[in-house]
Structure to design on (346 residues):
């Protein structure tokens, strides 16, 4: 059966016709095996297969057995790693490879990947952590992943001690990502009246989706006036009403809503995240990211009385503790206002 005639503006995707006239969709990238994709590009099955092709890494010469690089390879081939969501695996693989390729000493040639796993001790772990000291969340993410790697190594008898347990996490300033304000968003929209920058903000302010979902949302996710999709990070099914503002802004013929100025999908979550931050800076707004808009929307909803479980359903959270801070903060403000009103009547 022919694939639906849609505008397949997906990077590395091509359509080929067989002798009998039927069309097949393929993923074609230089240096990578040609891969046939599912026939219907409007399905989650198609997008999942497309994401797997994007994540494909060419087989490299195997790392020497017993090295840290070899140990990382074993972890990435483990059930613990493979059971994670696509977005988690992609992000975790990127962190692992950055550690493997880092020099043991700055300016020197030997890398951490070449070091024997048995020799990786507390000092090595602290170096890998401290090289991300300017971004404590990134440093702590390294520790989190290293802990999983060495837990596997101990269970397999490859090392004797998990030194990660003895290394303290970096202190992270409270509050995390800066929450966008009404003024921040107004300045952004005033600076970007059209194009991808405008569309990104309209989607973000109306849905609060994560970058990993923003990058892949498209026409296949529109069903009966709803945006229906599984979040890349948590795998939670979200069904979000499409507001009039969002409906008017969404492209009608693209498989992926958000495209670059060159008419192609963004190559990675990191590339899109950096671009949104750049668009904010162009509007004169510093230190606000796409995640800040997500926090802005969650705050707005909580202030209007949304419960923890309602926020969980909207934002694709698995645990009430992720929604609780927004509800508690809104409750505190409401109680403080009520107390102020009472004092005014004394």
């Amino acid at each position: 059966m022919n694939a639906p005639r849609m505008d397949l503006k997906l990077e590395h995707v091509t359509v080929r016709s067989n002798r009998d006239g039927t069309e097949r969709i393929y993923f074609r990238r230089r240096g990578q095996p040609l891969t046939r994709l599912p026939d219907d590009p409007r399905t989650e099955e198609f997008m999942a297969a497309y994401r797997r092709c994007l994540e494909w890494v060419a087989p490299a010469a195997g790392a020497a057995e017993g090295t840290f690089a070899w140990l990382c390879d074993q972890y990435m081939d483990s059930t613990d790693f493979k059971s994670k969501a696509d977005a988690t695996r992609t992000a975790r693989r990127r962190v692992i490879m950055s550690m493997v390729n880092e020099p043991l000493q700055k300016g020197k040639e030997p890398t951490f990947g070449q070091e024997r796993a048995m020799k990786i001790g507390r000092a090595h772990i602290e170096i890998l952590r401290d090289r991300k000291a300017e971004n404590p969340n990134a440093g702590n993410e390294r520790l989190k992943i290293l802990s999983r790697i060495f837990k596997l190594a101990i269970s397999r008898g490859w090392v004797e001690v998990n030194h990660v347990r003895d290394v303290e996490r970096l202190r992270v300033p409270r509050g995390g990502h800066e929450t966008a304000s009404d003024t921040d968003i107004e300045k952004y929209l005033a600076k970007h009246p059209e194009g991808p920058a405008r569309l990104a903000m309209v989607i973000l302010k109306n849905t609060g989706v994560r970058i990993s979902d923003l990058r892949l949302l498209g026409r296949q996710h529109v069903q009966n006036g709803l945006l229906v999709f599984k979040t890349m990070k948590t795998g939670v099914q979200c069904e979000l009403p499409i507001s009039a503002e969002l409906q008017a802004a969404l492209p009608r013929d693209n498989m992926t809503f958000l495209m670059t100025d060159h008419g192609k999908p963004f190559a990675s979550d990191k590339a899109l995240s950096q671009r949104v931050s750049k668009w904010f800076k162009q509007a004169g707004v510093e230190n606000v990211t796409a995640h800040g808009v997500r926090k802005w929307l969650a705050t707005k909803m909580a202030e209007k009385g949304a419960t923890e479980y309602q926020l969980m359903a909207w934002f694709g959270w698995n645990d009430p503790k992720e929604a609780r801070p927004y509800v508690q903060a809104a409750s505190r403000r409401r109680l403080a206002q009520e107390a102020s009103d009472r004092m005014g009547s004394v």
Q: What stands out?
A: The mean pLDDT is 88. Residues 68-166 form a domain with the DNA polymerase; domain 1 fold (CATH 1.10.150.130).
